[in-house]
Every structure is written in C-alpha cells, then in structure tokens.
Amino acid sequence: MTTLAITGATGALGRLVVADLLESGTAPDEVVAVVRNPAKAASLAEQGVTVREADYADPAALRTALEGVERLLLISGDAVGARVEQHTNVIEAARDAGVAHIVYTSILNADASSNPLADEHIATEKVLAASGVAHTVLRNAWYSENYTTQLPQYLATGEILSATDDAPISAAARADFAAAAVGALRSAGAESRTFELGGPAFTLTELAEAITEATGTTVVHRVVSADELVATMTSDGQDATWPNIQARVDRSIAAGEMHTDSKALEELMGHAPTTITEVVRAAV
Ligand code: NAP
Questions:
Q1: Distance, CA of 202 to chain centre
Q2: Of ligand 1's atoms, which has the minimum distance to the CA of residue 174?
Q3: I need a surface site. Which of 61, 81, 84, 129 has the fewest CB within 10 A?
Q4: Rounded to an integer, what distance in angstroms lies between the CA atom of residue 129 and that of residue 39?
Q5: Which of 75, 124, 253, 257 to mutate to test the pocket of ligand 1 (most atoms within 8 A of CB)?
Q6: Which InterPro entries does this UniProt record tie to the protein (predicted)?
Q7: pTM exceeding the 0.85 threshold for the entire prediction
C-alpha cells in the first residue's frame, strides 16, 4: 500500500486528480486529501478518501497531516505573493514527516520565463531542490479553460483581444494536467525529474476560428500592443493592476514562453491530450 497525499484537493485541479486516481484503480484508503476547509471535502470523505485539515500557513498542522504519506502532490496555492512561504511550509513538513517524493505543479518554462507568475514557482523549485527530498516538477502550461471560461465575453464582443502577437500557446485541458499528475505520482521513484507539460499548440486566431465553428458566431483575434491592451481594458474605468499583469503575460506568450514541443504530458497521461477544438466544443 502506497499512501498518496494531495494538497489543494478541494480545488479544481485537486478534485480531478483524486477522481482520476480512484477511477484508475487506486484504493480510496490510499488517498489522503489535505484541505484547509474540510466542509468542502464532504464528497471526498464519502468516497472513502482520508481528509486531513491543514492550511499552507500552518506548519504544525501540515506536519501532522503528512504523517505516513509516501508520495505527495503539492498543488501550488492561489495566494500570489504568499506562495513561496506557503510552499516552503509544505515541503519542510513533508521532509520532516518522511515523505519519500514530492510532486509540485509549477509553470511552463519556469526558469526562462518573463511571465510575472513564474518567480514564485522558480523560488519553490529551488526550495524543493534544497530539501533533499526526491521530487518531480510538473511545469504546467496554461489551462485551456483559462480561455473557455471567457467564452461569454468573446461571443458578446466578437473578438479575443491580446498582445500575444498570435504566438502559439501549448495550453491543455485541466483534466489532462490532472491525469499527468497521477502518472507522475505513480511513477515517482528515488530520482528527481522536471517535465515541461503542454498540449497541442494553438494561436488565439485558431482559438477564435474554433469558437466561430462551434457556435456559429463570428469571433476574431485582434492583436494589439501591450499599451493598447491596457488602454482598452481600462477604458471603462477598471483599475490598471490586472490589465498590466495581463499585458506582461501576453508579452511572455509573444516571446514563445507558453509554448513547448515536449511530449511529456502525453507520456505521463498515457494517451493523447485533448485538443483546443474539443475543449471549446465541450464548453459550448
Ligand atoms: P483552484 O481551484 O483555485 O485551487 C487552489 C487550491 O489551493 C484550492 O483547493 C485551495 O483551497 C488551495 N489553497 C489555497 N490556499 C491555500 C492555503 N493557504 N492552504 C491550503 N490550501 C490552500 O486552482 P486550480 O485550478 O485547482 O489550479 C491549481 C493551482 O494551479 C492554482 O492554485 C494556481 O497555483 C495554479 N493555476 C494554474 C493555472 C494554469 O493555467 N496553469 C491557472 C490558474 C491557477 P480551497 O479549496 O479551500 O479554496
């Protein structure tokens, strides 16, 4: 029996990981869901999964929650700015509890990316490397759902606005990243590994074409400069904080930093990733 723990198990990715583990034959009593709010984990407990409470800010609770765990999936938190300290707490607790292998969800091309979200992932990767615990870094590209959740806006305006220069994006479905995380947990051993994970690349023009085809409503990709993007996004009085981050993210994409030719996603999943056309059709 190998005890596997998943942090962030009540989040979107974490729920998919637990579901994939159970569907693909892992016994529920081998799965520990580490959550900050057990009330959100009732359905996991009903399936026989062990639910343990620990916030990333609470080292003692993390240490207790990881007792007896052999392999851990540390799903990166969402509190931008606080994540290095939070992830360090989890990694140190895992080391102290004797966890043999930590799998961590990072960002694509983390060590060569100007994406404003990459800094905390790189810092976490360094903490992992210094921990002495064997680890697997899953450098996940964007979720395709980052785009499909914006479908209502695309359809209402008839356009996707970006400063990406229509560069290719190796996004993949969240469920595919979950399946890859399961593959990484199952194959984890004594060696440390880093995988660049991305799906079949598409441009936002190709995304617009897929949306047009699936909905019958014409959507186009309008490429603008970073300054024009910020100006357009703030024209209704919106604060510039998010538009400025969006502009930096888009320039990172334009530089090719959200693209990979790596086939590691497919290899860890054991089958071909979902295409953006399929994700769009499902979302529609
Ligand atoms: P999500 O649904 O927001 O899940 C985040 C999970 O982290 C939730 O379960 C949340 O707990 C947990 N969490 C946050 N702060 C915590 C804390 N202080 N202590 C314990 N748990 C904490 O995000 P997701 O879609 O599953 O994605 C997983 C992670 O990938 C995100 O957190 C983020 O780092 C990253 N991400 C990647 C992309 C991408 O495109 N690749 C996009 C968005 C995010 P609750 O369930 O209690 O809220």
A1: 18
A2: 25
A3: 81
A4: 34
A5: 75
A6: NAD(P)-bd_dom, NAD(P)-bd_dom_sf, NmrA-type_oxidoreductase
A7: yes
Atom 48 of ligand 1: nearest residue by CA position: 11
Instruction: Name the closest-CA residue to atom 7, ligand 1.
Output: 8
Cβ 142 vs Cβ 171: under 8 Å: yes
Output the CA–CA distances (angstroms, integers) from residue 221 to 38, 104, 166, in the order listed: 42, 33, 8
pLDDT digits 0-9 by tens, 181-191: 999 999 999 99
Residue-level pLDDT at 84: 98
| Protein residue whose Cα sits closest to atom 8 of ligand 1 | 11
Token duo for residue 232: 């357009």
Pairing of strands 159-162, 193-197: unpaired
The chain-wide mean pLDDT, for the chain, equals 97
Q: Are 183 and 95 in contact (CB under 8 A)?
A: no
pLDDT of amino acid 1: 82
d(CA 182, CA 192): 16
For the segment 230-282, what is each residue's pLDDT rounded down to a tens digit?
999 999 999 999 999 999 999 999 999 999 999 999 999 999 999 999 999 99
pLDDT of residue 2: 87
Which residues approach ligand 1 with their CB closer than 6 A?
8, 10-14, 36-37, 40, 55-57, 75-79, 86, 105, 140, 142-143, 146
* Distance between CA atoms of residues 90 and 35, nearest Å: 12
Ligand 1 center from residue 78 Cα (angstroms): 5
Distances (CA, A) of 253 to 72, 117, 177, 201, 261: 31, 12, 19, 12, 15
